[in-house]
Amino acid sequence: MEPKRFVSTIHDDATAGDLDGIKKHLENGTNLDSLHPNDFATPLHESAAGGHLTICKLLVGHGANVNPMDIAYMTPIDRAFGNNHIEVANFLRRYGGKSSKELKTEGKLTGPDYDPAPYYENLQW
User: Fold this and answer.
1) 26 or 6: whose pLDDT is higher?
2) Residue 100 phi/psi, 5° resolution?
3) What pTM does this model have?
4) What single string gives the DSSP state of each residue in 41-93?
5) Residue 62: burial class (beta carbons within 10 Å; 0-12, 13-18, 19+)
6) Are 33 and 64 in contact (CB under 8 A)?
7) What tens digit of pLDDT does each residue of 68-87 get?
8) At the topology level of CATH, where does 10-122 sit?
9) With bands split at pLDDT 50, 70 and 90, how would you rate the model's confidence at 2?
10) Angular region, 107: left φ>0, alpha ψ -120 to 50, beta rest
């Protein structure tokens, strides 16, 4: 009997910062905005949370949505800031990334009144 092989998902590779794995997913046409079944995070959420700037650049450069919301109504910028990855957050901002609070203010976030980072008022862009 052949042993089972572990097949890495794009979410695993984004979380781990595995650039070669992400490139293979791009070659295979993997959906860059696929939602993780546990928390509805996209690969961009995962790479932003881990501070993997190169992977964020690659995903955004290949058309990944910069403002998806996960199950907690957090965007990739929320996750980057929440983990103190300011360089990643600034990169996402340059490409149109917004916090969930900003999307709520614009009327683009419907649902509970969720504010994942009350310190946004003090941030300077």
Assistant:
1) 26
2) -65, -30
3) 0.83
4) --HHHHHHHHT-HHHHHHHHHTT--S----TTS--HHHHHHHTT-HHHHHHHH
5) exposed
6) yes
7) 999 888 999 999 999 999 99
8) 1.25.40
9) low
10) left
